[in-house]
Amino acid sequence: MEKRFFFEKYGLSETDLEKYLAAALGAGGDYADLYFEYLTSTALSLDESMVKSAAQGISAGCGVRVVTGERTGYAYTDDLAPEKILHAARTAALIASGPARTPVVSLKDQARPSLYPVTNAAADAELAEKVKLVFRADKAARAYDSRVKEVRASYADELRRILVIGSDGTFAEDVQPLSRLSVFVIARDGQLSAKGTSGGGGRHKFDIFLTAKTPEHFAVEAARQAILQLTAVPCPAGDMEVVLGPGWPGVLLHEAIGHGLEADFNRKKTSAFSGLLGKRVASDKCTVVDNGTLNERRGSLNVDDEGNSTQNTMLIEKGILKGYMADKLSARLMGLPNTGNGRRESYEHIPMPRMTNTYMLSGDDLPEDIIKSVQRGLYAVNFAGGQVDITNGKFVFSASEAYLIEDGRITAPVKDATLIGNGPDVLTRVSMVGNDLQLDEGIGTCGKDGQSVPVGVGIPTLKIDRMTVGGTGSAQ
Amino acid sequence: MATTMTAAEVDLRALTTAVVQRATELGATAAEAVLGEGSEFSAVVRLGEVETLKEAGSRALGVRVFVGKQAANTSTSDLSPEGVEQLVRAAIELAKITSEDPMAGIPAAEQLGQLEGDLGLYYDDVYSLSNEERIDQARRAEKAALGVDARLTNSEGGTFDASIGRKVLANSHGFVGEYRSSYCSISAVPIASDEAGNMQRDYWYSVARTLAKLESPEDVGRMAAERTLRRLGARKIKTQKVPIVFDRQTAGALLDHIFDAVNGDAIYRHASFLAGKLGTKPFGSNLTVVDDGTIAGGFGTRPFDGEGVPTRRTTVIENGELKSYLLNTYTAKKLGLATTGNAARGLAGTPGIGNGNFYLQPGEKSQEEIIKGVKQGLLVTEFLGFGVNLVTGDFSRGASGMWIENGELAYPVEEITVAGNLGEMFSNLAEIGSDLIWRGSVACPTLRIEGMTIAGE
Questions:
Q1: Domain residues of chain B, as ranges?
Q2: What is the H or E stretch that residue A234 is in?
Q3: Is pLDDT at A409 greater than 50 in this prediction?
Q4: Element housing B82 (H / E)
Q5: What is the pLDDT of residues B392-411, one digit of tens each?
Q6: Do residue B417 and residue A420 have CB atoms under 8 angstroms apart?
Q7: Does domain B2-228 correspond to CATH entry 3.30.2290.10?
Q8: How far from the centroid of its chain's Cα atoms is residue B6's Cα?
Q9: Which DSSP category does B348 fall into?
Q10: Closest partner residue to B396 among A60, A238, A416, by Cβ?
Q11: DSSP code of B215?
C-alpha cells in the first residue's frame, strides 16, 4: 500500500500532526481530528461522436474538527502550509471555551483491509485507453438500432488519498480509487422521443471496463431502454401490487429505511425510526445490511472518513430493527457501537453517518413465482433515483423502466412513474423475497445535507403487496 | 480579513491573466482562465445549544485551452507557481486527446464585455457580525419557531450562514473581468408531533445579499412553525383528477423544469421536449417567461457570463410563443444562433448554461383569490423526488400540501404523487398569481393547473 503520501509531498511529520491536534484542543474539547485529502480526477465526455471535452483536476486540503459535547467546530484550508493548518485548527477550536487539553498519545497506525487496488487503479490507465471506451460505447449504441439518434458517453475516474488523525490516537491513511462509465441515449421514431441511461463502475482496476463492465454492455443497455420506452404506455395511477427487480431497485431500501437508520437522525429523534430498536419494522422475510467491506464496490471503504474500518452492519434481521449506522459523534453520544459509517464529501465537509453498500439478503422465492403471484400490478426494474423525508418517513423513487403485470405475466412497458410510500411500513408489506440478490452496477451517489458520497444498493426480486404508483394513466 | 483580501487582490487578477498568457506560450490558440475565491461561515443552533460552527476560505483556478479545434479543461487548488505551471501544461497535453470540433472556441472579441456600474451584488456587512451575534441570529430563529405552539417539540435547528466570493475571468482576447458577491441567510427547521407521536418537519428561510435585507430571525422562525404545524394530521387522498394550485415554492420548481427545457445544451442534443419548437406557440397565450441577468441586486445577476459575454434580458416565452432558447457560445453556434450571455462556468469543466433572474410574468390574482376559485382541488406546497423526463416532458413527483374544499384550505395531504406532462401543464395555466417574490434566481407566482393526475389510495 502506498503510504506516507502527505509526509512526502508536504513534508509533514508526526510532531507536526501532534502540534496541530494540540492547537485544535487549545481551548479544550472532547475530541479533535484532522482530515487531509488530495484528490486527482479525470473526466471525458463524448457527444455527437466527438470527445468534445476532457477535464482534469487536483484538489487538496485539510479539514479540522473539534468536538465538545454535542458541539462541533469546523474549519478547513486548501493551503497545506503549516501556518494555514494551525490557523484552521485555532478557528475550529473556537467552539470550545475551556483550558487547553493535551491531546493524546501516540498516533497508532493499525492494520487495515485492502478492498481495492491502489496501483493499476483505473486512474492510472493511459488517457488514450480511456478515450477508446467512450468511442466504443458510442459505436455500440448506434449499432443497436437505427432509431438511436443521440448518444452521450462519459468516463470519469478519481484517486483520493486521505490521512485522518484524531486525538483518540486515530491514524489512518488510505488511497481510494473510483471510476465510472455512463451512457445516455435518445431514440426517436417519427414524433416520438425516449431516453435510456446505463452505467457502472467501482473501486477497481481499469481492466474491468475491458472485461466485465464493457462500454458495449452499458451502451446496449441504454439503447435497449430508449427503444423500449418508444412503445411505453402511460403508467397507471393508484395503489397496486409492486414487484421490484433485483439490483438497482434497491434504491428503495436506501430511501425507505436507509436514511432513517442513520444514527444522527435517531440521536436527535427526528427520524420516523427513532426508538424502534428491537421492534418489527419489516416482514420476517427481510434482512438488510449495510456493508462497507465488499471488494471493489463503489460504496466500499477500507476506512471511513474518520479513520475507522468499515463493517458489515446488521440493520434489520428477519424484520426486527437491529442497529443504526453510526459515526464517532453519534456512537459516543448514544452509547452505540461505531459502525464505521462516518463519511464526508471532502475536506470542506463535516463527517456524518452515511450509508456504504446497503442491501437485502436473498430469500427463498423464485423470481418467476413472484411475478406469477400478481394479478394486476407493476414490475419495476430500473430507477432514476429517489428522495425521503426522514421525519414523516415518506419517500419516493422514480422508475425509468417498468412494466404492467397482468394475470401473472409481464406485459406492456410503462412510461416514467414515481412510487411513493411510507418508510416504516413499506417493508412490512414485503410478502415475497427472491433468491436472486444483485447489487447495482456501481452508479449511485447519495446526497445528504448538501454532501454527495458514492454508495451501493441491492435487493433480490421483491414483492410489495401495496404501494402508491404515480402515473397519468387511469387507475387499475 | 478585509485587509488580507485587499493585499491579495492585484495578485489574483494578475495570476489569472498570467495563466492565459502561459497557455498561449505553450501552444494554445485560445485560452480562458477563471479564478474563484470564497469564504463561508455557518452557525447551527439546535434546541438552544450551538451544534456546529464552520468557517473557512478557499481559492482555486481553472483553465480552458483550445489547440486549434481541440479543447480541454483543468483545475487546481494549488496556486503555487509549480501548481499553476502543471495546470496549464496538463490542459495543453489533455487537448491532444480530444476530438476536433469545428464549433469549439471562446466568444468572438466583439461579443465580450460587461455591465457597468454597481449591480448591488456585494455587501461586506454579511461578514460584519461577531461569532456571538451570528449564533444569536440562528438561536433566535429556532426559538421563535419553537415558541409558536406546544406541539413543536423538536428541531433540526436554526441556522445563520454567510458567504462572500470573488470571481476573476480572463481570456486570450484580452478580456479581464471580475466581480464579488455576498450572501447571508437565516433558516429554521422545527419538528411538530401530534398526540399519536407522528412527526412532521418543515422549514423556512430568508436569503439576501446584505444583512439589511434579511428578514428577522423571528419572522423566519414563525413562518417555519406555521408551515410545520399545518402538516400535522396529513392524510392520503383518493386517486383523481382535480385542479391543482402550486404555491410559489412548487411553482418555482416547475419553472425550473422550463429552464432546463430551454437550456441550449438540451436543445441541440434534442434532449428537450422544446427542441425544434423555436418560433412556434407550444403554450397558452397567458404564459410569458423572461430571463434577466441585469436586475440590480438580483440573485441571478452578474456583470458578464461564464465566458465574458455581458448578461442581458431575454424574453424566452412571450404570450405562449417560444421566442428564445438560453445559450452560451458553443450551443449558439450549434444552433446557428447568437449567444444570450447565459454561459455558466465553474472552475472545472466546460461552460454550461445558467439562468440569470428567471421568472414567469405575474398575473392579477392573489394566491388567496386563486384558492377561493377552486371548488375541490389540491394546494401543493412541497415536492418529493425528481421524476421529470425532459425528453418527453413527462412529469411525476411526490407531493404534499392542503386539500381545498369550496375555496378553503380543509386539511393537510401527503404520500401522493402529481403527474402530467410539462408541455400540457404550461398550456393549461388556468390562473397565474400576482405574487412574484424573489427568494432565489428563479421566481414564479402561484399557478393553478388543470388536467393533472393525483395518485393516492
A1: 2-228, 234-457
A2: none
A3: yes
A4: helix B81-95
A5: 999 999 999 999 999 999 99
A6: yes
A7: yes
A8: 29
A9: S
A10: A416
A11: P
Percent helix, strand, coil in chain A, to 5, is 25, 40, 35
Q: What is the mean pLDDT of residues A426-447?
A: 96
SS3 B261: helix
Say yes or no: A131 contacts chain B, CB-CB below 8 A.
Answer: yes
Instruction: Report all structural domains of chain A as residue ranges with CATH numbers, in order of start.
Output: 5-229 (3.30.2290.10), 238-470 (no CATH)
C-alpha cell at A247: 439490483
Residue B8 has pLDDT above 60, yes or no: no
pLDDT in tens, A144-170: 999 999 999 999 999 999 999 999 999
Residue A210: count other Cβ atoms within 10 Å of its Cβ: 15
Q: For residue B289, what is its C-alpha cell?
A: 417567461
Fill in the DSSP letter of residue A205. B
Judge whether A230 and A415 are in contact, CB under 8 Å: no
As a whole number of Å, the end-to-end CA separation of chain B is 58
**Residue A81 DSSP SS3:** coil
Report how many helices (DSSP H) and strands (DSSP E) chain A contains, helices first. 10, 24
| Partner B, chain A 301-340, Cβ-Cβ below 8 Å | none
Q: pLDDT of B158-193, one tens digit each?
A: 999 999 999 999 999 999 999 999 999 999 999 999
Q: Do A392 and B58 touch (CB under 8 A)?
A: no
3-state secondary structure of A368: helix
pLDDT score for A385: 82
pLDDT for residue B1 is more than 50 = no
CA-to-CA dists, residue B230 to A222, A389, B152, B220, B373, angstroms:
43, 16, 11, 16, 21
Q: Quote the ipTM score.
A: 0.91
CB B403 within 8 A of CB B272: no
Contact A216, A137 (CB under 8 A): yes
Q: Which residues contact A162 (CB under 8 A, 6 or more apart)?
A: A35, A36, A37, A38, A172, A173, A174, A176, A303, A305
| Mean pLDDT (chain A, rounded) | 93
